[in-house]
Amino acid sequence: MTAPALRARAISKRFGPVNALSDVDFVLETGEVHALLGVNGAGKSTFIKILSGVYRKDEGSIEVGGEAIDCRDPKEAIRHGIATVQQHPELVADFTGYENIFLGREAARSGLFSRIERTDLSRRANALLKRFPVDIDLSKTVAEMSAVEREIVAILQALAGDHIRVLILDEPTSTLTEVEKTVLFRLIDTLRQAGISVLYITHRLEEVMEIADRLSVFRGGRMVASMPVADVKAKNLSLAELMLGEALDHVFPPRAEPDAIGETVLAVRGLTAAGAFSNIGFELRRGEILGIFGLVGSGADELAKALFGAIPVEGGSVVLKGHTIAPRSPREALKAGIFLVPGDRRVEGLALTETSIFNITLANLKRASGTAGILKRAGNRTASGEFAARLALSPPNLSMPVSGFSGGNQQKIVVAKGLFAEADVYIFVEPTIGVDIGARAKLYGLMRELSGTAGVIVLSSDCDEAHGIADRTFALYKGRQIAPPDGLQTRNQLLMAGIMGELHRD
Ligand SMILES: Nc1ncnc2c1ncn2[C@@H]1O[C@H](COP(=O)(O)OP(=O)(O)OP(=O)(O)O)[C@@H](O)[C@H]1O
């Protein structure tokens, strides 16, 4: 019998008091696509970081093609044929796809490559594309590329060493649209056929069924299941239940009862921001959740920012609780009672080196401060502790810097920050990227709770999310609002509106 592409035995890893991984056994066969699943903090990232040489394991052994390895850094892992594409690959925006693939980040940044090297690039790229055919124009700069093109460049960069046999992808689809995802899956299929083993982390359970051959589930740092995807289908198993260790009754909370809907809190008329969106109008009432479905580039992100005063508008009006406001800055918007939970927590949402308490209370300094402006530490600890418990923050350690939390738990902290703000209008942008299904159900429940005293807007490029959480919906398509007069539509109508820009009736 031939040895598997990769085998890990009894891997353990601790971070201080946290057992991030305990006694993990794992097998990755040659040419298989293997999905790693688990709730936030289950240990998936730690495991792939050990395989790729970022972290050292405390115990256990790893073999590649039957040969024991012990990598001290990522370069050594690459030498043994294990390459990793991070969730947010660092590419050089001003350089072409070719340059990014072959020159390495440092060389590309310094621009130190000769004409001969440049000519050589296309020859080598063509050889690479012959091995792994994919439709992409590598002469474009990364800045000109779409999200999926950037992902493809990062994958080709990882595969540029000829001997790579294991490719690790960390949530490769989290920022891709449905159409882009299909393009990526085609490339993954090509890799599988070329005998490359692909190990990838995802929170999108439906795509596991679509692309993976096998899946493994982490729970609390242990590997609790590993099986062919065909078995999940044949036995009708629930992946959510495997991950959570308990049944999940529903992901989305019930819709609002008609008598729970109150007065209009926000009225938007003819809102226009050049190049982003035009003539947007809607009313948001207390007690309801408005879902806005928009793909990347639809203007949804800009609309959220404009309502929050983070980007200027050219025309239209925003009326909050009967008063016309024109928030020119997030500070003004916050003061008026609008709170934004941004999509990209790394850039906009969190002070990563600060503790989670600091981050949660940041949004409402008035509430967090005593009369003399001194932070009420004990009170804040209690209130933010309560939110952390409601969101099942893991570990529930409020004094830990945010950077020590797993990605999904960082997202929960952003939301807890919003909950502390006591606003009249909450705007959530892509609220559950990287968040596991159990925590997602909790977040949706909290949004519904928030709508008890406020109006809530959820902007998402995931049609199921925008439709599932909302009482009313509309789509944004290339900056235009695509909305039926009554705001009621089925999931498929919303999908067509957001993807094609057309209104359909079933
Ligand atoms: N550098 C670190 N320092 C301290 N604790 C850490 C560190 N990295 C991970 N942990 C802890 O180890 C556990 C496993 O985290 P890990 O990032 O592997 O989870 P994950 O399954 O990848 O989660 P997510 O889906 O949210 O990314 C968590 O409790 C996390 O807080």
From TrEMBL:
GO MF: ATP binding; ATP hydrolysis activity
Record's keyword annotation contains rRNA-binding: no
Keywords, in A-Z order: ATP-binding, Membrane, Nucleotide-binding, Plasmid, Repeat, Sugar transport, Transport
Domain ABC transporter: 6-245, 261-503
Pfam hit, one: ABC_tran
Top-level division of the source organism's lineage: Bacteria
Family stated for the protein in its record: Belongs to the ABC transporter superfamily.
Protein name listed in UniProt: Sugar ABC transporter ATP-binding protein
Species for this entry: Shinella sumterensis
